[in-house]
Give the backbone structure.
Amino acid sequence: KNKKWLELALPGSRNAGTWQLNIEHRNVPCHEMHSMMNSCFKTDAIGWHRAQRLSVGDQLRKGVRYLTLQVLVNRESSDRLWTGNGYYTCPLREVLKEVADFLTKHTNELIILDLNQFHEEGQCHNGKHSMSMGAHEELLLLLKQNLVQWLIPRNMGLGMTVKEVLETPYRTMVMYCHREIAKSTDCVFSREDSVRDMSMTKSFTDVDQLFHSLQQEVTRHHPVEDRFWLLNCALTPTLRSMLKGLFGGSENSLLQYAGHVKRVILH
């Protein structure tokens, strides 16, 4: 508890709000690539974009403490703000409720919500599905309505120890990927100023190469004491493994291989 929150290794989940994604969900219309995949290979596209199989509540109960979420505007729904990944997957209100329910039952747990991607204005031809200023105001209000008693105020800073946080009533830090909006309120942190995102943009077919690249990144940028480090790798099947899966002969499922990769990296 005397360690700084920044010094802890926190298990995280990528696109945490995609667990409900199924064949009935709509793609975001202005995503041209998703629209093409949706018309030709929807079943495959759904499997590709569903990053989690557990609900947010179950992810938290399994030990996840760093949740990344993409936020989309869904004007065809009474709940305008949704999570997703090219598809509308779950109203954001439901995700925040699961977080609140978990914190109500587990009063000494700390959670980071990383709103790491918005569908911003200018990303679609008519702005219909983008995050306008009004949508940002609605999002901040939704955060306060569901998590107000747990939101860590930005003026507490990033350098507090776990013990210092637990001595307050606050339990949730929100990273917001719009610096100007984040600075307009005290209930969220600017993601750009608070997170060093070390997501792997290179492709690797060998676990040892991946581990070596991560080591190089950490060594090159160490120490970074004023922000959280996010290590984010997406495990994706090769064309060969997809063909083996379709026609038989696949020795290991992608889930089994993911477990192997995780064990190697953590070891």
